[in-house]
Write a structure and sequence with these properties.
The structure holds two protein chains of two kinds. By secondary structure, chain A is mainly β. Helices cover 0% and strands 49% of the residues of chain A. Chain B is built from no helices and ten strands. Classes of the chains: A mainly beta, B mainly beta.
Amino acid sequence: ETGVTQSPTHLIKTRGQQVTLRCSSQSGHNTVSWYQQALGQGPQFIFQYYREEENGRGNFPPRFSGLQFPNYSSELNVNALELDDSALYLCASSPSGGGRSGTEAFFGQGTRLTVV
Amino acid sequence: GESVGLHLPTLSVQEGDNSIINCAYSNSASDYFIWYKQESGKGPQFIIDIRSNMDKRQGQRVTVLLNKTVKHLSLQIAATQPGDSAVYFCAENITGRRALTFGSGTRLQVQP
């Protein structure tokens, strides 16, 4: 167990709706990253949060947004859901950020989002 | 549980044999590498990491080899067990960048 917990574990939404996914980082970790993993592929970086601010972003549209709270937990919000948003959404926490990288990232079990 | 990696390259080995999983990376600036194991229905699990100033690192039953000349990474698993069956991903990182870049994965199947 990594200590990174995500909720919910499974979710079904309709195209056009909005969704919020949640992540609690491992104790002592102040950096949270979100990844999207389509079936049969490796995870793709969405963005990272450090000290409650977005600290880097991958090639995802603005309808993917996030938050980080003072206790380092995080939310991923996706607006105007599309069928292609169906994927496993993974949260990873790291012990450092804000300029330092190359440290271990520990993943949660993911949230399986299905858009119909 | 769900199936991760329906059409991934597959390595099939007998229980007790050694396994070698390979990964090619493309960015010569990458300086940190991680191997992850992902079982069906779960998130990636950290196995071992290596920095670019090393060419070999050993853990418990696992060894990672890094060849920067040909941009190749391998994961060796000794005495493979049925519990090692999973999809294995290599991930690379560049100091100063936030994202881990993952490879496409290899499915390891251990035959009893």
